[in-house]
Amino acid sequence: MRQLPVVPNIPAFSTLPPGLSNEYLRFYKLSNLVQTLGMAVHLGWIFLFLYLGIYPLVFINIGSVAVYIFNIV
To answer: 7, 35, 65, 66 - which has most CB atoms within 10 Å?
Structure first.
């Protein structure tokens, strides 16, 4: 299976959890990619809301990024 060129050093993309069957491999890879992209989008929203001066949404998105990181780890 070919590696994605953008994320070869992220452990979730280069190693598999024990007991994962080939039947669920595609879902595992796709969910890791979606979670990583979702975290990047939420991180971008922090800077957008900071630029626009909407500080309550900045704090909400900081919490959202923290939840994403907690779930991925």
So the answer is: 65
Q: What is the pTM of this model?
A: 0.57
Structure tokens at 10: 């992220």
**Helices 25-52 & 55-72, crossing angle to 10 degrees?**
160
Q: Report the distance separating Cα 48 and Cα 44, nearest Å.
A: 6
Cα angle at 71 between 45 and 26, to 5 degrees?
95
Question: Tens place of pLDDT for every residue, the chain, 73 residues?
Answer: 555 555 566 665 666 777 877 788 888 888 878 888 888 888 899 999 999 999 999 999 999 888 877 876 7
Dihedral in degrees, nearest 10, Cα atoms 37, 6, 30, 71: -50
